[in-house]
Amino acid sequence: MRGHNASLTSKNVTLPADQSWVKLLDDNSSRMYLVIQNDHDNHAITIGFSNNTTAPTTGLNLKGSAQVGDKDATWEFSVAPINAVWAKVNDNHAHDIEVIYDD
Fold first, then answer.
1. Contact 86, 21 (CB under 8 A)
2. Are 7 and 102 a contacting pair, CB within 8 Å?
3. Inter-residue contact 76 to 32 (CB < 8 Å)
4. How far apart (Å, rounded) are the C-alpha atoms in residues 98 and 29?
5. How confident is the prediction along the chain (103 residues), in pLDDT tens digits per residue?
6. 17 near 96, Cβ under 8 Å?
């Protein structure tokens, strides 16, 4: 069985030190691919799912790494969420993440 083709986009997002949720992607019912890579810093982040206007209250933890391409600091979704995707830092340390998607 062959998979679907997708035109991928990559963007760098800075998560602020104040631990506020940042919307990474709006909801999209046709989204098929999503990867979040936290390899710019050793600090963990939280990834959450909600709608376009309300930040989530909980989420999944993704460890950080200062090693570019570190698979342990990468979350590749086998089924891409179609709802809005949000993220925040888990400490008071702002840093960048990479978001790769097919919207």
1. yes
2. yes
3. no
4. 21
5. 445 666 889 999 999 999 999 999 999 888 888 999 998 888 999 999 999 999 999 999 998 888 887 888 888 887 777 899 999 999 999 999 999 998 6
6. no
Q: How far apart are CA 46 and CA 59, in angstroms?
A: 6
Strands 74-76 and 60-62: unpaired
CB 25 within 8 A of CB 86: no
d(CA 23, CA 3): 28
Residue whose tokens read 């590749």? 76
CB 65: neighbour CB atoms within 10 A? 20
Say which residues have a Cβ less than 8 Å from residue 88's Cβ, sequence separation at least 6. 15, 19, 20, 21, 22, 45, 46, 48, 59
What secondary structure letter does DSSP report for 68?
T
Instruction: List the structure tokens of 23.
Output: 């919307």
